[in-house]
Design brief:
38% helix; 591 residues; single chain; 24 helices; six-stranded parallel β-sheet; 18 strands; alpha/beta
Length: 591
């Protein structure tokens, strides 16, 4: 059951036409029961008197702004306006209205004109009693914005504040004390008993929390060959169901019609699509169909059509089951990265409200240049960094993705939990470039660095410049370091996996926050401080703060416009992300 508040106002004005009749028709056409509570008992009583039908016609026939203006009138002006020039609407006989109002005192008239149904408890009770429980119901309740306040009905009352005198007048009218705003009703009074009864009826015993099954930190596999971080997402989820079935059983993926194009196909084939009942897959005998759309109550994937806002709304709800029912889920939403911005506000509010989830934006950046500008993203690294309650990752290699995803899953479904945003790419990358240590202790350190936000990818014995890169362009950073070495310019290469976490470490070291700072000493030790070139397939300011770690000169390469289509080399060259651009920037810094 919905109650729609019709108060006739927006922020800046009175709305000329709310389309109430049209909205009522839309709900009725969809099978809803439609109830309207327009007038309260006092006004209905006037309508029942001789001349009342003329007054009803007058009020019904006026525009919203004209009605709102009546709320700002004293009784004398009110009588004049109700019977004046504008009273000539069908059925609104000014003489009949004047005759009716002649028998109404000023106080009653002043109260009656603002006596709308949404403020009349008796009228609302009658509407509630008429609800048909066999179908959804919508109640359109007419109200006055700021009802009972000095600013009621004023076109700009949205941002108005009561004066001290107005606040005390309101308190006197309702029997409250502004100095003691939380004073309860007298013990044993009818109001106190009603409050106690309601509190008992609405009591909620917190469900016993159930811990999320353990999520592994590392599957122990080292990828070789060529792979993309997007493809690694599907593989990691698939491996999770085999190596940690308890945690895998609590994963729920959601997608706005891009399951196959974001590499969830293998996962979807394994776990199925959620549906309220078993449904026949009419393509199960088609040998050329790779994606098996098996819909069943045990499915762990939910498809939402092209509806990113619905997706993040569902993520917020799925991510709150740990606190509502003591049953944590591990929700993962997958969208094309540029369309994260379509759903930014509800995603942010879902996190704020306690919904813990993982949002995956893929493919991202201008690295998908052949698809043109429509699917390119620039600002999303900033979104991930700046979203409270969320850790953003942009891994460069498949193993980085595995470690970041597992760490993010381990933070979900708990009182101290945290959401995550992963920005992935469709660019194939040589996985041997990750140079993953074979020694178990060294591998463990690499994993901790990856999860903490950065790790040294290449160390030169005598560095004179540092190249810090993130995501898909790490390949160009490594190639530039090799070229610089041939020119006699030693270059360190640092791979950023989470600039947000590194930035928090920098702030904490400066006395703002309590984030751990060990990652700075581990990856950016003072003894190796050199001028720095940062490279990201996103806006260049994403990594610009790194020059401030040791107050060194810096040049920051990235993308500040989009729309260009072409081969990867051409697009990178256009935006200054190619190897030549990185080498040139480094040489300029050290010259």
């Amino acid at each position: 059951m919905w109650v729609v508040d019709f108060n006739r106002q927006s922020l800046d004005r009175v709305v000329p036409n709310m389309g109430g009749t049209r909205l009522q028709g839309m709900f009725a056409a969809a099978g809803w029961q439609v109830l309207t509570v327009k007038y309260g008992g006092l006004l209905e009583d006037l309508f029942a008197r001789p001349g009342g039908e003329a007054l009803r016609a007058r009020v019904d026939g006026m525009s919203n702004p004209e009605y709102q203006r009546l709320l700002r009138c004293d009784a004398t002006e009110l009588r004049a306006r109700l019977t004046g020039t504008y009273a000539s609407v069908p059925g609104a006989d000014p003489g009949a209205i004047a005759g009716l109002l002649a028998g109404v005192d000023d106080t009653t008239l002043h109260a009656a004109i603002r006596n709308l149904g949404g403020h009349d408890l008796s009228a609302l009770r009658e509407a509630f009693a008429a609800i048909d429980d066999t179908r959804p119901t919508v109640i359109f309740a007419y109200t006055v914005k700021g009802y009972g306040l000095a600013s009621e009905g004023h076109p700009q009352n949205h941002s108005s504040l009561l004066t001290t005198d107005q606040l005390h007048a309101l308190a006197a009218r309702v029997g409250a004390d502004p100095a003691r705003p939380w004073t309860p009703f007298p013990e044993g009074s009818a109001a106190a008993l009603r409050c106690a009864d309601t509190a008992w009826r609405l009591r909620r015993t917190p469900p016993p929390p159930q811990a999320v099954p353990d999520v592994p930190e590392d599957f122990g596999r080292t990828p070789h060959g060529t792979a993309t971080t997007q493809a690694a997402l599907g593989r990691t989820l698939f491996d999770l169901t085999r190596q940690a079935p308890g945690a895998g059983a609590r994963v729920v993926t959601v997608s706005p019609d891009v399951s196959s194009s974001t590499n969830l196909g293998g996962w979807l084939n394994k776990v199925g699509v959620w549906a309220t009942d078993e449904r026949r897959n009419w393509f199960d005998d088609d040998t050329e169909t790779i994606l098996h759309w098996r819909e069943r109550p045990t499915g762990q994937h939910i498809e939402l059509g092209i509806a990113e806002t619905n997706l993040v709304g569902l993520l917020g709800e799925l991510g709150a089951t740990w606190s509502r029912w003591g049953q944590p889920l591990l929700p993962i939403g997958v969208v094309y990265d540029p369309f994260v911005e379509r759903a930014l506000e509800p995603w942010s509010f879902g996190i704020y409200a306690g919904g813990q989830s993982i949002l995956v934006g893929t493919p991202s950046g201008v690295s998908l240049g052949p698809e043109g500008g429509a699917h390119q993203s620039i600002k999303t690294p900033s979104i991930g960094i700046e979203q409270p309650g969320c850790t953003a990752y942009e891994p460069a290699f498949a193993l980085d993705l595995e470690w970041c995803l597992l760490a993010s899953l381990a933070r979900l479904g708990r009182p101290d939990g945290r959401s995550a945003y992963l920005r992935l790419s469709t660019r194939p990358v040589d996985q041997t470039l990750a140079n993953v240590p074979a020694d178990p202790a060294a591998r463990g350190l690499r994993r901790r660095q990856v999860v903490a936000g950065a790790y040294p990818l290449r160390r030169h014995e005598s560095p004179v410049v540092t190249i810090a890169a993130m995501g898909a362009v790490v390949t160009e950073a490594l190639a530039a370091a090799a070229r610089l070495g041939e020119l006699g310019v030693g270059a360190d290469v640092v791979c950023l996996t989470s600039p947000g976490l590194v930035f928090e470490a920098v702030r904490s070291r400066g006395g703002h926050g309590d984030a751990p700072t060990w990652i700075l000493d581990s990856v950016f030790p003072a003894r190796r401080a050199t001028p720095i070139v940062t490279v990201a397939d996103g806006h260049p300011h994403t990594l610009a703060f790194l020059a401030g770690v040791h107050q060194v000169p810096g040049t920051h390469l990235g993308v500040s416009e989009f729309g260009q289509s072409g081969g990867l080399d051409d697009v990178y060259r256009y935006h200054g992300l190619d190897t030549d651009s990185i080498v040139a920037a480094a040489l300029d810094l050290v010259d």
